[in-house]
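Service request form, structural biology core

Requester: graduate student, group of Dr. S.
Request type: structure prediction, single chain
Budget code: on file
Notes: please return the result as structure tokens.

Sequence provided:
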Amino acid sequence: MAGAALAFTLMVALVKHARAELEATEIMFWRSLVGVPLAWISLRGLSIRPVATRLLLLRVVLGFCAMLSFFTAAKGLALAEQSLIGRIQPLLIAVLAPAFLGADEKAEARTWGALALGLLGSVVLLAPGLQGGGLWGLWALASAIFSAAAHTTLRALGRSDHPAVVVLWFQIGITPIAWLLHVLVAGEAPAVPPVDLWPAIAGVGALAVVGQSLMTRAYQLDRAATVAGAEYSGPLWAILLDLLIWKAEPGWHILVGGAIIVLAGLMVLFQRPGAPPQTAMRTSQDQPPEASSTTAMTGASSTKGSASR
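Core staff response, request fulfilled:
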């Protein structure tokens, strides 16, 4: 999940660059169009047939709403503001996961402590750059809510479908939706981006597939709240990139906030892992159809001999 946070942080920088000339729906369309062949390559011979079809459709819809809100907010918010508003997402996941996936997903006291500590660290890290987002801030809040729901479905999908299959169908699903929404809003099909934006669009698509793959796999392996806690590394990655690429001088808030986030991450990393889904390592082609309906939204603790280990 920390790797996914790095990929998404790099993606956000490219999205902000592209948003200077393109609408959010255009970036979503071209991003997914680039992502489909990359996701297809990652299948490596797996069947593309999904098991939990309805759950996968819900993940596509929720993910599309989260992405639309996120890309819209990126035009009017500084990276610090958008990142901080998004930090409520792990807390929402800690509430949603046990409510919809069962008591096994209930976060332990230590996890709640790590989530709260990570949020505090993000506030310290990012607060000096905040100016107030207004309407754009509401878009960022909507993105966090939709994203929390989408991540909860990823945890459920880990019980039935291979991560590569989930990522592929997500890319395929959002492509026509983004195209249709842009046509309805703008009255025309998405235009081909200017040549100078092609590298940024390609980068957004590639980083999205990498981030989605790592994130989907992460939710197979541990409780949703625990995995979501690793997302607090996102602001830390952003600050480190500022230091390495743009040679920004670290202020006290960077050192203190970064240290708090690292501590929160270590609390998550070294706590006892939660029970992975019973069918975490089953792929779409090796699970019989009659079994899929009973495993899509249910799960039990794995034994030590489980393939998911």
